[in-house]
Every structure is written in C-alpha cells, then in structure tokens.
Amino acid sequence: MALLKLSSTLSTSAVSVVLSPPRSSSPASLTAHSNALSWKRSSLPSQASPLLSTMSSRALPSGVASPCASQATGVSAKLADDSSAPHETKGVKVQSGEGGLTKVVLSSPDGSNEAQVYLFGACITSWKTSDGKDLLFVRPDAIFTGQKPISGGIPHCFPQFGPGPIQQHGFARNMLWVIESAQSDDETTTLVLSLQPSDYSRKIWLHEFSNTYKIVLGVDKLTTELTVKNTDTNPFSFTAALHSYFRADISKTSVAGLKGCTKLDKPYEDPANPIQGLEDRNVIEFPGFVDTMYKNTPDELLLDNGLGTKISVRNDGWTDAVLWNPHLTLNSSYKDFVCVENAQLVPVELQPGESWTAKQYLNPV
C-alpha cells in the first residue's frame, strides 16, 4: 500500500491562500436554493410536532460572530506551479483545475473509476464510473474563482444548513481545505482532507473546530466520511449536509425509500409556509418545483436518474434527507439534475473534545 503525507507541503508551497473578511454584513441574498426551507416558529400551528419546533429553531444557539451574508470568501486557492506540487502517489494526482483552483484527481486501483475533488470547499465535482458515465452534475453557472461556492458536485453545508444567523449553508464550502494524506491499496484510493478555523471563519462563527473529510474511491463505489470535532473550550451546535447534485433527466427521475417519513414540503406558490405531513408515495417524482426535507430517514434511498442508472444513496450517521429541484427558478439547467442530500437538520451539540461522524455510500445498482 502506498501512503503519502501531503499536508505540510501543500499548505506551504503548492497553494497560495489570501484571507480577507466578507465583503458585506447586509442580510444574505438567497438564490433559488434559499429553498433550504426557512420559516418562522410563530407561523407553525399550535399542534406542531417536535420535528417542526426542533427544525424551526435549528439556528445556531451560540457562537455567531456577526451576520455574514456575502458569499465572497477572499480565498485564493490556486496551484502555484507544477514544480511546487506535492509528490503524488498511485491513483492520486494534484492538478490545476478550472479557474486555476487546485483539484485532486483520484483513480480507482483498476483505473475504471475517476473522481475529481477541488480543495476549495472540498467539493467532489465529478465521479465517472466503469461505464464512463459521470454521475455527478456541475451547474453551467458554477463559478471557479475561489470567491463563491462551487455550484454542483457534492458541496458541504457546515456549520449551518440553509438560511439562518450566518450565510446560506455556512462557510465550509467557501474555504480552502488541506490534504492530510492520500493512499491506495488493491481495492480503493483514499484522500483525507481537513478544515481548521481561519480569520475568515472566526468572523462568522466564534468556535474552534477540526473537520476531516475522507473520500474513498473504489470500483463503482464512492464513500465519504465527515468528522466534526469540537476543539473549543465551550460546547457548540451545528447542522450540516452534503448538497449532492446528481446528473439526471428530471422528467424521468424518481427517488424511492422515503414512504412513511415525516416531511416539510416547501410549495412553490407559498414558500414561506412549508407544509408538514407524512410521505405516502412509494416513489417520488419531480414534475415541478420540489424542495422537501425529510426527518429520520432510512439508511438507504434509491435514485433512478432517468438516464439508465439507478444509484444507491446509503448513509451511516446522517439522520435526515433533502430533495431539491428548482424547476423554472433555474431554467438553464433544472432539467439536467436532481439534488438528493444526506443531512443533519436537527442541531448536533458537541462538548469540548467530542466528535460527530457521518458517512455516505454511493454506488450504481
């Protein structure tokens, strides 16, 4: 097994990082996926379930430094030059990607699968399986400048999912992650990234933390493992999600496995008043705008992408799920993707020194 430690080399030579405070402290300008279902507790019926009351108060209870609405990060995450790139190991190549942002290209040991991971946001933007199909989707309006989150692939939402006291979906998707290690064996190629607080994150959220993100690529298998550790002297709470974009023909796309789950459905006509109910459909289709949060979801969902591939979306530790397609609010590309998101919508509270871990397993079936 080949093993490579890259963190010190990459952080000091291969990547130039410039940090500056957010550009604006005005309220967030939310795009089509302000869809993350915001609502007011006062608008809920008196018989609201614990799901509604808990989720409606999912705002971070402490540690918010200031409102931070701007998606601008002030982070430049570019590969300095080829000669300063860290040494590579089998199945792992560090390259300059779109906009000069650093990306890591992973290959499965047999060469049949490939994944691309941008260090900016630790965003997996591509996963090609043994049939040559890329199962992930990056929106045509995605910007690779290091100034906005990458719209597509598998972005992170941390320490907040959706709108709230800080910027939409938090700051992890706006920051430069660092390579900790890369290794390969006979069956898988593994990349481990980490995220630590910076001047930028501390202007938004006052807590100290250490996140690690393990990406494991095998033959038609893509596994991710996110660990959040509280390195602060005080407890903190957070919500999180993997905002996964899957390539799809939305007219033929369906998701199975959510029947019986409690849901909050945000109707297109009245987004300020989400509707609570129980999912009664065996298979969920996407004939129009869909933005629905599901509570206490099963370990596995089955996505039929309408393009001839069914994808098992399994999890261990993610308690909830979100389905999203913006329909005509994103006319340029809504027909070509669906978001099936493993999420932690009820806040997790970590005491100093405690950790939380959640895994996602993707594979075509």
Automatic annotation (TrEMBL):
It catalyses: alpha-D-glucose 6-phosphate = beta-D-glucose 6-phosphate. GO terms for cellular component: cytoplasm. Its EC number is 5.1.3.15. Transmembrane segments: none annotated. One of its GO terms (molecular function) is glucose-6-phosphate 1-epimerase activity. GO terms for biological process: carbohydrate metabolic process. Keywords: Isomerase. InterPro entries: Aldose_1/G6P_1-epimerase (IPR008183), G6P_1-epimerase (IPR025532), Gal_mutarotase_sf_dom (IPR011013), GH-type_carb-bd (IPR014718). CDD domains: D-hex-6-P-epi_like (cd09020). It holds the Pfam family Aldose_epim. It comes from the Eukaryota. Belongs to the glucose-6-phosphate 1-epimerase family. PANTHER family: APOSPORY-ASSOCIATED PROTEIN C-RELATED, GLUCOSE-6-PHOSPHATE 1-EPIMERASE. This is glucose-6-phosphate 1-epimerase.
